[in-house]
Each structure stands twice: as structure tokens, then as C-alpha cells.
Design brief:
By secondary structure, the protein is α/β, with parallel strands linked by helices. It is built from 8 helices and 7 strands, in the order βαβαβαβαβαβαααβ. It folds into 2 domains: 7-184 and 229-249, Rossmann fold (3-Layer(aba) Sandwich), CATH 3.40.50; 187-222, no CATH class. The chain has a 7-stranded parallel beta sheet, with helices on both faces. The protein is globular and about 50 Å long. Bound molecules: nicotinamide-adenine-dinucleotide. Nicotinamide-adenine-dinucleotide (NAD) binds at residues 11-12, 14-18, 36-38, 41, 60-63, 88-91, 111, 115, 138, 140, 183, 185-186, 189-191.
């Protein structure tokens, strides 16, 4: 087992990718803390793993820096340590560029950018003194491509790419690796509600829009959260000890 006995905190663990990562980590022997805005969603993930007794389900709003600190403290209080931190929490709001408001921009940045940073910081404060840690963020092809209907999301993911590089360089000497994993267009998760919204804005049916956005992909299909989760296992494992500051594409060539 690649993660045997390691304590992993998965924030956003109630969502589609978080659940798939939790399942893969559980299979590889990790002890799991699943945190989500909705504790019910975190509990559901734990229950689906059949390891509810071994795991911890927590509520956290990562838009609040104090809550980022508190969730890490809860994990350490329960397990006594933290080796792996995965941030799968994010939101995406669709708005034509001329209609983006400061409030909606800030809402996205509070979770995707500031939340990502302060959760990572809280996790690193535990990992650095112990000279070991694996930090994994989830970025998006949107951070590099032009998606005018969700510019705030795309920009917030560019922040993720950037904080990964800064933290990776700073913490490499302390045995803490920091990477981000970039899923392509997935078969599940936030993309469902996003595409309903995009269909409304572009006056297409959701089915039409989804078909266009699938057929345009180099592989002609979307990627499942379970496929992406396998890369999250590898990046958290000892096999990836020398991998840091990476923006690891799992996009099926989408970015080309
Ligand atoms: N679905 C896709 O096609 C796709 C593609 C590329 C990247 N991504 C990225 O993958 C990651 C996972 O996305 P997903 O598709 O599983 O989405 P999802 O909506 O299924 O999961 C996101 C989870 O984050 C939680 N969350 C939202 N705000 C939070 C907050 N303030 N505090 C704590 N938790 C919060 C939600 O409750 C949800 O459970 C995200 O970073 C997303 O940007 C997704």
C-alpha cells in the first residue's frame, strides 16, 4: 500500500474529486480526515468508504482563515500528526465578463485563492517541524486558457499555480513537497452546475453544450474523478519524493 498509516486531510472531500481521492487513499492504507463546507457531505464520503470508524468528518469554511487553522488543529488533536494535505475545495461562478461584480469576484477568490493559501499554510506549520509533508492543490486548465465566462475562477486557479511554486521552493528543504494536479474536463462534480449555467448564458441546451465541450477534447471523452485520483495517490506517495513545484496535467492533451 502506497500511503500506509499516513494521515491525510482532504478539504472539499465531500465533492466528486474529493470523494474519489478519499476512496483511493483509503485503499492505499491512509487514515482520513474529510472536511467540507457541509459536514453531511464529508460524512457521506466516509460512509461510502466503509472506514467511518477510522476516519474523521469535519465541517470547515475555508473562506475563513481561522477555520483553515482550526481544521488542521482538529486533525492533529485526533490523529497526533498530519502527513498529507489535499485541497479539493473550490467554487466556480459563471458570468459574462461585463457582468462580473466585485462581490462575486471576491466570493470566488475567498475560497479558491485565499482559502487555498491559508489551509496550505496551516498544514505546513504542522509538517515543517516534522520534516515531512505532501501538499496537493487542484488547479484547472482554466488557469492558462481563455475562458471568458468564468474569468474569476480561471484567475483564482492562476493564484493556486503561483502559491504552489512559492511554497514548493520555500519548503523543499523541510521535506514538504507542494504540487498541483490539473484535471481535464471531468464526468462529475462542479462542472455539472457550471455547464447548466453556461448553457443558459449561451442559449443552448445543457445537452448540446456538454456534447460540444466533450467532442472538442483531444480524446473525445471526459476524465473520471477516479482516474484523476490515481495521480493524487502517486503525488502523495514516497515515489514522488523528488517531485515538487509541479503543475501536473491530467488533461488528456486539452491544454494544447
Ligand atoms: N469538475 C471538473 O471538471 C473540474 C475540472 C478541473 C478542475 N476541477 C477542480 O477540481 C476540484 C474538485 O472539484 P469537483 O468537480 O469535485 O467539485 P465539487 O463541487 O463536486 O466539490 C467541491 C467541494 O468543495 C466544497 N466547498 C466549496 N466551498 C467550500 C468552502 N468554502 N470550504 C470548504 N469546502 C468547500 C463543496 O461543498 C464541495 O463538496 C476543484 O478544485 C475544481 O476547481 C474540477
Amino acid at each position: 500500500m502506497l500511503l500506509n498509516g499516513q494521515v491525510a486531510l482532504i478539504v472539499g472531500g465531500g465533492g466528486a474529486l474529493g470523494r474519489a481521492v478519499a476512496r483511493a487513499y483509503c485503499r492505499e492504507g491512509a487514515l482520513l480526515a474529510i472536511a467540507d463546507l457541509h459536514r453531511e457531505a464529508a460524512l457521506k464520503t466516509l460512509a461510502s468508504l466503509g472506514c467511518r470508524d477510522k476516519g474523521l468528518a469535519l465541517a470547515v469554511d475555508i473562506a475563513e482563515p481561522a477555520a483553515c487553522q482550526a481544521v488542521v488543529e482538529q486533525v492533529v488533536a485526533h490523529f497526533g500528526r498530519l502527513e498529507i494535505f489535499v485541497n479539493c475545495a473550490a467554487i466556480c461562478l459563471a458570468d459574462p465578463l461585463l457582468e462580473v461584480t466585485p462581490e462575486r469576484w471576491d466570493k470566488v477568490f475567498a475560497v479558491n485563492a485565499r482559502g487555498a493559501f491559508f489551509c496550505m499554510q496551516a498544514a505546513a506549520k504542522v509538517m515543517i517541524p516534522r520534516k515531512y509533508g505532501r501538499i496537493l492543490h487542484i488547479s484547472s486548465p482554466a488557469s492558462r486558457l481563455g475562458f471568458p465566462l468564468f474569468a474569476s475562477y480561471a484567475a483564482s486557479k492562476a493564484v493556486v499555480d503561483s502559491i504552489v511554486r512559492a511554497a514548493a521552493v520555500d519548503w523543499a528543504r523541510h521535506g514538504v513537497t507542494v504540487n498541483c494536479l490539473v484535471p481535464g474536463r471531468m464526468t462529475d462534480g462542479m462542472i455539472r452546475s457550471l455547464e447548466e449555467e453556461l448553457a443558459r448564458i449561451t442559449e443552448k441546451t445543457t445537452e448540446e453544450l456538454q456534447a460540444d465541450r466533450t467532442h472538442g477534447l483531444p480524446m473525445g471523452r471526459r476524465v473520471s474523478p477516479e482516474e484523476v485520483a490515481e495521480a493524487a495517490v502517486w503525488l502523495a506517495s514516497n515515489a514522488a519524493a523528488y517531485v515538487t513545484a509541479e503543475r501536473f496535467n491530467f488533461t488528456g492533451g486539452m491544454e494544447l
